[in-house]
Each structure stands twice: as C-alpha cells, then as structure tokens.
Amino acid sequence: MNAIPALPPIPAKRYFTIGEVSELCGVKSHVLRYWEQEFSQLRPMKRRGNRRYYQHHEVLLIRRIRELLYEQGFTISGARARLGDTPSDDVQEFSTLQGQEARSENNSLHPHAAIQSMHELRAELLRIRADLIGPQGMV
C-alpha cells in the first residue's frame, strides 16, 4: 500500500488562498471546489471576483476530510456522515493529533525520549501479545 506523504505544517496566517490550501492539504484545487459542494461545513469566504479564502479551521477540516477519504477509505457520503456526527469535535480531534505529531517531531531531537517511547510501546505490545496468547499458550 502506498504511503501518503506527510503534510507540511500550517503557517500562522488568518487566510489562505485555494492554491495555498491545495499545497497544505495535498489536494488539487478542483477537488477542494468539489468538496465545498459535498460538505456543508466547508464554506470558505469569497472576495474579489469570487476568490476563495480559507481560515485555519477550514484547513484543518480539509485535512480531516482528506484523512477520512484517502487514508481511512470512507466514501464521500460516509465521510459526510462521520463529520456530521460531531463536526467541531472531529476538527478539534484532528488538531490535537496534529499537535501530537509536532511534539513527536520535536522528540526526535531528544534520543532519550524516543528510546523511552519505544520501550513503552514494546512493553504495551508484549502485554497485548500475552493477552492474546492466554494462559494456555493458544491464540
């Protein structure tokens, strides 16, 4: 399965053009315009000759939609339903995950923290393995 490349960090700006959002989210401009028709939560501001300007929360929403469609395999209607459940919670959850990724990248500068994380992960995996095998050594 092809790995989807990591997205660049979102700059601290108030508004983004459709071209900037396209680059930040790894989605072509025509796809963004199509998603505006499909997802009611996605409503960029339009100015000067119908030029679109997206705000930070909309960029996060687009990244969430991209994740649902491209990484988790949802259909458009499935992603719409998923976002319809709790749209603000999904954007907040995605924002939190993005923050965790940024902190994770910062941890790569500290090898001791990364090694500690790997030890914790290994211990957790061993516990899960032991639970799956069970007391009689069978899966």
Please give a structural write-up.
63% of the residues lie in helices and 6% in strands. It has helices spanning 18-25, 29-38, 56-71, 76-85, 87-107, 111-133, and strands at residues 16-17, 45-47, 51-54. Strand 2 and strand 3 form a beta hairpin. The chain is elongated, with a radius of gyration of 19 Å.
Shape: elongated
Radius of gyration: 19 Å
What is the CATH top level name of the largest domain? Mainly Alpha
What's the total number of strands? 3
What is the CATH topology classification name of the largest domain? Multidrug-efflux Transporter Regulator, Chain: A, Domain 2
Distance between the termini: 27 Å
Strand content: 5-15%
How many domains is the backbone divided into?
A: 2
What's the helix count? 6
| Regions with little confidence, pLDDT below 50 for 5+ residues | 86-90
Identify the CATH architecture of the largest domain.
Orthogonal Bundle
> Based on helices, strands and strand pairing, what is the structural class?
mainly alpha
**What is the succession of H and E elements?**
EHHEEHHHH
Average predicted confidence as pLDDT: 80
Helix share, percent: 55-70%
* Strand arrangement in the largest pleated sheet: 1-3-2
- Main pleated-sheet profile: 3 strands, antiparallel
Topology:
Blueprint: E1 16-17, H1 18-25, H2 29-38, E2 45-47, E3 51-54, H3 56-71, H4 76-85, H5 87-107, H6 111-133
Antiparallel strand pairs: 1-3, 2-3
Helix pairs in contact: 3-5
Summarize the entry for a quick read.
With 139 residues, the chain is mainly α. It is built from 6 helices and 3 strands.
